[in-house]
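The following block was generated as part of the benchmark described in Methods. Ligand: AK4.
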Amino acid sequence: SAAAQDRSWRLDDFDIGRPLGKGKFGNVYLAREKASAYIVALKVLYKAQLCKGNVEHQLRREIEIQSHLRHPHILRLFGYFHDANRVFLILEYAARGELYKELHRQPGSRFPEARSATYIASLAHALAYCHAKSVIHRDLKPENLLLGLRGELKIADFGWSVHSPANRRHTLCGTPDYLPPEMLSGQEHDHTLDLWSLGVLMYEFLCGAPPFEAEELTDTYRRIRQVQVTYPPHLSDDAVDLIRRLLVKEGKQRLPLSGVLRHPWIVKHAGPTL
Ligand SMILES: O=C(O)Cn1ncc2ncnc(NCCc3cnc(NC(=O)Nc4cccc(Cl)c4)s3)c21
């Protein structure tokens, strides 16, 4: 509610529960707002770490961007507050946790086609909503996808999101597996960046590993630049067709989200949830 933004929150407004996850800049805890008994996730970020990582402006941008986003497949950021040495994000609680843990629990670490299509359709709806507001996420990967109480997908962590078009200001940290060629060469990028990452995620949901994964980082970079993908035999022709239309070097040539939602592979498998 808007009230969540106006009133200033404090740590003793909450009962703190079990840790939900551990992060580079701080941990996430289950928490209950005392007055309403509302359950949230509370992410604790240490200012010293944020300062050392030179990411304070990214956090401010995330808070600004997230405070205007309202979508069933985007994890809500209800508000934030800080004390002497910590910043706290008050987040929607995703009861079924991290999607990548669910992915690796599966046989072969991959989802069946119908489940993958439902997740891709949810992502396409959420991204269409973001792009309509000129917001690109830029960091779509299984670690940033959470599952709600009924297993519904929630995009989380807009720590790398920006208004498009944009240029990368920061050196990349973390895996390059989900980044398009234009991000590797520091070129200007736009919302079509997220279309590439959607293709990488679709491949990983269906195959159990991202398409450009390699032992050496340099090999991953080369395979991304050359769009070097091999398709395992168990993939349906429709699935291969949709991935091929997203993993295209030229951003403008990638299938737009409207085309993704109309694609036969999505309509066939995720039809009822569209
Ligand atoms: O995922 C888990 O570990 C466990 N988990 N399990 C359930 C659950 N329900 C809700 N949230 C969870 N986790 C927090 C998800 C985030 C959302 N938004 C973020 N933003 C952020 O970290 N920003 C940020 C950080 C450091 C620097 C900068 Cl610049 C920006 S993290 C949950």
